[in-house]
Amino acid sequence: MSASRRRVVVRIAGFIGIGLVAGVLSGLFGVGGGTIVVPLLVAVAAFSQRLASGTSSAAIIPIAAVGAVSYALAGHVDYLAAGLLAAGAVVGAQIGVRLLHRLRESVLRWIFVGFLLVVVVSLFIVIPAREADIGITGWSGAALVLTGLITGTASGLIGVGGGIIVVPAMILVFGASDLVAKGTSLLMMIPTSLSGTIGNIRRRNVDLVAGLSVGLAACATAPLGVLLAAALDPRVANILFAGFLVAIAVQLAVRAVRGWRARRGAE
Known about the structure:
Layout: H1 3-29, H2 34-45, H3 49-73, H4 79-100, H5 105-123, H6 138-158, H7 163-172, H8 178-202, H9 208-231, H10 234-266
């Protein structure tokens, strides 16, 4: 095997490894896996932050599809809520893609870190009931669309599927069970990520080989994450999700500090 071919094989193997990890976390926490995919693409494949975000958005489509089907088969998806969230998120994803090339990423990261820390504290206060359902009224429907709009914008900006926003919002604001929140979140991500991916492809901000490799590999392990989520006590699930969000917040804070130091050094 030639050296160039060996590098290609190693590179694709790295993408597959990233996908296997992202799939488990996607099913377990109801997220698209972008919070894992983006930093690993930067670290392992030397992607730029923007290319990693765009590629992650493409990878999330098959990941979310498999996870959503797994939750739906167990009856843990609210289709109306998912539709309302998606209505706002599809528009928000296009806004996020446009802002990706205009906003300073460090500012966004600090805002997001603050949001995640508030959510972490809330998750220790509110423990969802497994039998809880979402009661959708005119006001809550509008709030779901607004939540989707915010989620889609974040998705387009930083390459996450939006589960780290939608899942806690569904639990804390709309009173959903943790399993329904996760299943509904994954279903909402499919059109959201598709919208963002189309926008990124137009701007040549996607590595489709990497996206497909990560996404298809994740499909193999996403159902395992769903099984783990169903087996966990809601309190334990909240604690694990809170720990996951803390890890993400630390990761974003470290990147923001590094970016700030790099700008100071360049001045």
